[in-house]
Amino acid sequence: MADSLHKNFETLRSIFEEVLKMKNSTGERDRADELTEKRKYASLLFVLIKKVNRMVKYSLRSGREDLHREKVQVDSNRLHLQNLLYEVNHLKREIRYCHKFKSQDEDIELVPEDDEAQMDDDKTLMPTDMTPLSGHVKHLARLERELNLRKQLSAQCKELLNTKQQVFRDIILKTEKLTSFAPSLRTLLKATRPLQDALQVPMDREWKLQQLVQLLPQPLYLAYMNLHALELAKECDVCVIVVGSEDDVRQLEMAAQTETIKSGASSDTDEVEVGSVTKKRKTHGGNSDLLVDLMQEQRKRVLQPHPLEVRFTIGNGTKNTEETIAIKLRYFKRLGFVTAATVVTLGETEQNFADATLTQDVLKYLNDEDLGDRIPVPGAEYELKNINMSTKECLDYLKAKEFGRPYRWLQSMCCIEVFHEVVDTNVTNTPTEQPKLQKLIPDLIKSIQQLWNSRLNLIKQIRALVQKHIDMYLKEERLPTTRPACSLVQWTALTYEEYVASSPHVDKELVNVNQLFYRAVVVRGSAKMECLVSISSKFPTESPHWFICIYWNGQHNAMNSAAVKSMEFWTNSLTQSQLQHPLALLATQLVRTMYSFDIFLETEGPLYNPVEYHREKHYIKAFAKRIRARPYRYIEGGTVNTFKQ
Fold first, then answer.
1. Which value, in Å, is the radius of gyration of the alpha carbons in the chain?
2. Cα(533)–Cα(502) distance, rounded to whole angstroms?
3. Maximum distance among all alpha carbons in the chain?
4. Domain span including residue 54
5. Whole-angstrom Cα distance, residue 531 to residue 488?
6. Among 42, 107, 402, 422, which residue has the fewest nearby CB atoms (within 10 Å)?
7. What GO terms are given for molecular function (predicted)?
């Protein structure tokens, strides 16, 4: 068709050229007929070209329609292939999900297989041909038994809840009856108060105390009941009371309930607020005060003790009630331990001369391995880390607030779980088994009373030495009748740092921070003797240790003088079992030291000119040879006191 159209165009072009040539020639008139024929032929060619053009358009339109149909078919096939590809991918994902599938019943602890119950349940599932059950069918049977068991437990739970509601209604009814009975009971108490005073039976006071006892936390309640039983049995000289207000306990319980509700409702909000405050603090630094306030409030809640405290008083075992020691027990619920603080009551005379170290923290001398400088309760360190506080800071806070120390024996007394003290660092701490309270608490009370009596005896001895009454408790002892020529001029208390710095020859291995330290100054003429005394916490079981330094013609101590070393041995060898009076140990040691000082000066004095000290005491020499030992020991011989080596 294109060739025909092209051919017609060529023919039409040739006709146009021929007509143009004819017009340009001279014989145009002669060829008029021929031109007319050419024009007609050209007109017919136009018609033919038009026909061919229409046929070309028709063929183009049909081609476009065929092309559109093919495109539609290709798009349909492509869409179908894409759908198939999507289905293949979907099936692959489902297959992976199937491989990773984990049934929820795998996390459920099913009832253990019981042969009889399994046989009864499996009979219903077993086919008629008695084929053995598969593992899946057995698992379904166990799940069915678990479901039945849970239904039974749910029914029992509903029944118990109904019973609980019934009991709660009964409690409310009885409470209303008691409330209505209370005014009549108060009237009866007021009417019988003269009879109570006459019989010395304060019923209202006992009832108020019982109300406070019921509000005690469990550790303090156990301690109170055991101590109260000892008080009633009169096994020990102890008196226990509960100190605090019932209103404070109610307010604490209401505050705890409110805090629990708020924390459960707005835990997410608090995290967002704290996170935003921290972020602002890092970027701008303007809201750090808010974070500090939140931390301070949290510390206050963690370090807040229970409003009630148990206080038991221990006497000195005599009828004199002025000298007592009261121990206050406070419970910290968030930290989980109990602290003990002491309140010492002395007579006016002893109070004036008692050193502060003698009356404060008396309980830390109860056990050398339990000084209260650690927190032995598991979980307390975790709570302290949450409020950015170390153990030392917590103990310092308790000491500043006069709450006392968390002793290990105190936690055992209140049935609180404590850790073992492990020496090896590679071994982890394990909770200890709580001892029986029937034996533990009486032994503790007796140990505290014994420690308190020892401390009272020490206070009385120190009071006598401070007042220069050396011979107050020496009347029953076997001592020379002649008084020492030297005199005590000073008896003062020292700290551990002052004690160590006083003399470089002091053996630091024999002393520790928990001991009591004193300085005694004895003078005779131009000679001075300085004695450093360290008293152990186990006084009088362990005798006080004396370090002697003499200032006369130089400095003499145990490091450079055998005589002073012998003097120290003669003084430190004295024990309480060698004495008659229980309060004569310190005074007897001092008297021995003073006699030794006199003998040292009288034996060394003649060797120097001018002679300042002459021989005033009678000595005998038990050995023929010359020895370096001084005659410090003495022999009773009537009115004459003879000293020997």
1. 54
2. 11
3. 201
4. 2-93
5. 11
6. 107
7. mRNA binding
d(CA 248, CA 307): 6
Q: How many CB atoms lie within 10 A of CB 303?
A: 19
Residue 616 shares a structural domain with residue 496: yes
Question: Which of 147, 141, 143 has its CA nearest to residue 125?
Answer: 141
d(CA 393, CA 399): 10
End-of-domain residue from the set 34, 65, 93: 93
- Cα atoms in the Cβ-side hemisphere of radius 13 Å centred on 367: 12
Our count of domains for the chain comes to 3
Entry field: residues in the chain: 645
Instruction: Give mean pLDDT, residues 613-624.
Output: 67
**373, 507: one domain:** no
Strand order in the sheet with 324-332: 238-243, 309-314, 324-332, 337-345
Strand bridging mode 527-535 / 324-332: unpaired
pLDDT 10s digits, 127-158: 444 445 567 788 888 888 888 989 999 999 99
Residues 557 and 503: beta-carbon distance below 8 Å: yes
The Cα–Cα gap between 391 and 381 comes to 7
Please, is 571 exposed, middle or buried when counting C-beta atoms within 10 Å of its C-beta (0-12, 13-18, 19+)? buried
- Residue 428's Cβ-count burial label (10 Å; 0-12, 13-18, 19+) is exposed
Strands 309-314 and 545-551: unpaired
Q: How many CB atoms lie within 10 A of CB 54?
A: 10
Mean predicted lDDT score pLDDT of the chain: 79
Angle made by CA atoms 317, 338, 260, in degrees to the nearest 5: 145
Q: What is the model's pTM?
A: 0.61
Q: Is 620 helix (H, G, I), strand (E, B) or coil?
A: coil
398: Cα separation from own chain's centroid? 13
What residue type is 108 in one-letter code? I
Compute the distance between CA of residue 447 and CA of residue 449 in angstroms, rounded to an integer.
Answer: 5
217-260 residue pLDDT tens: 888 988 888 888 888 887 777 888 888 888 888 888 787 777 77
E strands, 80-179, in order: none
Between CA 157 and CA 155 the distance in angstroms is: 5
Are residues 588 and 526 part of one domain?
yes
Cα–Cα distance, 516 to 357 (Å, whole number): 7
Contact criterion met (CB below 8 Å) for 340 and 363: yes
The answer to whether residues 406 and 475 belong to one domain is no
